[in-house]
Design the sequence.
C-alpha cells in the first residue's frame, strides 16, 4: 500500500512498505546509460526534483559519478537516512566468496557506508570477461543458495538494509523462497504497458514481495517507444499530462515503485510530478490493454549461446514461462 511522505519541496511523494518494515520511495531515478552526466542528474533529481530514491548497478559503470551526485545532495542539506540507494550484484560476482567483496567495492565507488537495497542483477553466473553473446563456458553453474546466504550476511552486518532480486521467473523465485532465511524484499523486473508481466507481479504480491518496474518508458536505444504510443499520447492529452507522467503513474497505480532514467533536467523533474492526481480507471485499463506484449530486455545478447548453451534461446532465459 502506498503511504504519503513529504520532500524538501513539500511535494507529496508516495512510498511503499517492504516486508522488512522499511519503506521504498515510489519513484527513483534510473542511471543505466547515464554516463558521465550521472552525478549532475542525481544531484538535480534529489535537490531540485525531490527524488529520494536512486537506482544504480556496478555494471552501469557510473557508480563513482552517482556517488558524487549523492554527496553533492548531502552537502546541499539532504540527510543520507532520507535517501534510498539501490545497487546490484553483477553476474560475474555470483559465487559466494565474491558477494561481499563486490558489495564493498560498490560502497567504495558510491562513497557510502551502507546500501538501502542490494539486488542480484540477473540470475546467471558469467565468467570474468564473458563476451556478448557468450562463448562456450561463459555462462556457468551457480550456487544460488550459497550466494543468497552471503546476501543475508550483508543484512545481518548492516551493510545493506534490504536484499532482493531482478529478472527472476516464477520457477527461480519459488526455488529461492524454498531456502531463504531473509526474504527478498524487492523483485525488480521490466514492466510497462508494452510488457505488463502480470503473472510475476501477482506472484510477488502473493508473497509480500514488492516489485520495482524497470524500463517504465520502454527503455532507450533499441527499446519500445511508448512515449509516442497512440494510447499513451491520447491519455496524456486528455489529462493534460505528459506521456512520461502517464507511464510513471500507471506503474505506481499497479502498486509498483518505478525508476525512470533521464539525464535531462526538465524530464527528471517532469517524471516525478505524478502525485495529487490519478489515472481514471478507464484510462488505466486502456493502458493495460495495449497489444503486442513483449520484453525489451530479453537477455539474448548477455546469456544465449544457440549452439553451446546452457541457455540456447530467450525462452530458456525465462524458463519457458512467457
Ligand atoms: P526508461 O524506460 O527509464 O527510459 C529512458 C529513456 O527515456 C531515455 O532515453 C530518456 O532520455 C527518455 N526519457 C526519460 N524521461 C522522458 C520523458 N519524460 N519523455 C520522453 N523521454 C524520456 O529506460 P531504462 O531502460 O533506462 O530503465 C530505467 C532504469 O531501470 C535504468 O536506468 C536502470 O536504473 C533500471 N534498469 C534495471 C534493469 C535490471 O536488469 N534490473 C534493466 C534495465 C533498467 P533522456 O535521458 O534524454 O531524458
Ligand atoms: C546489462 C544491464 C541491463 C540493465 O540493468
Sequence:
Amino acid at each position: 500500500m502506498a503511504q504519503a511522505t513529504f520532500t524538501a519541496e513539500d511535494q507529496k511523494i508516495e512510498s511503499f512498505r517492504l516486508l522488512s518494515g522499511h519503506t521504498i520511495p515510489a519513484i527513483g531515478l534510473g542511471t543505466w546509460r547515464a554516463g558521465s552526466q550521472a552525478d549532475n542528474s542525481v544531484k538535480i533529481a534529489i535537490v531540485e526534483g525531490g527524488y529520494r530514491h536512486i537506482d544504480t548497478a556496478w555494471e552501469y559503470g557510473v557508480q563513482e559519478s552517482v556517488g558524487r551526485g549523492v554527496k553533492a545532495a548531502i552537502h546541499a542539506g539532504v540527510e543520507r537516512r532520507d535517501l534510498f540507494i539501490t545497487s546490484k550484484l553483477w553476474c560475474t560476482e555470483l559465487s559466494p566468496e565474491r558477494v561481499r567483496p563486490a558489495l564493498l567495492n560498490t560502497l567504495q565507488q558510491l562513497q557510502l557506508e551502507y546500501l538501502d537495497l542490494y539486488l542480484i542483477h540477473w540470475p546467471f553466473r558469467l565468467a570474468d570477461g564473458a563476451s556478448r553473446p557468450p562463448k562456450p563456458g561463459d555462462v556457468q553453474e551457480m550456487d544460488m543458495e550459497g550466494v543468497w546466504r552471503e546476501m543475508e550476511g550483508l543484512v545481518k552486518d548492516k551493510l545493506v538494509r534490504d536484499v532482493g532480486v531482478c529478472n527472476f521467473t516464477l520457477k527461480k523465485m519459488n526455488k529461492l523462497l524454498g531456502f531463504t532465511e531473509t526474504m527478498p524484499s524487492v523483485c525488480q523486473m521490466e514492466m510497462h504497458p508494452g510488457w505488463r508481466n502480470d503473472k510475476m507481479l501477482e506472484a510477488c504480491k502473493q508473497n509480500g514481495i514488492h516489485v520495482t518496474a524497470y524500463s517504465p518508458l520502454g527503455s532507450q536505444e533499441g527499446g519500445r517507444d511508448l512515449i509516442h504510443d497512440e494510447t499513451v499520447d491520447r491519455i496524456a492529452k486528455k489529462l493534460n499530462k505528459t506521456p512520461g507522467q502517464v507511464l510513471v503513474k500507471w506503474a505506481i497505480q499497479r502498486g509498483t515503485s518505478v525508476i525512470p532514467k533521464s539525464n535531462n533536467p526538465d524530464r527528471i523533474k517532469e517524471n516525478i510530478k505524478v502525485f495529487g492526481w490519478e489515472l481514471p480507471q478507464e484510462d488505466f485499463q486502456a493502458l493495460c490493454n495495449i497489444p503486442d506484449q513483449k520484453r525489451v530486455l530479453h537477455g539474448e545478447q548477455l546469456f544465449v549461446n544457440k549452439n553451446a548453451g546452457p541457455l540456447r534461446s530467450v525462452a530458456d532465459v525465462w524458463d519457458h514461462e512467457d
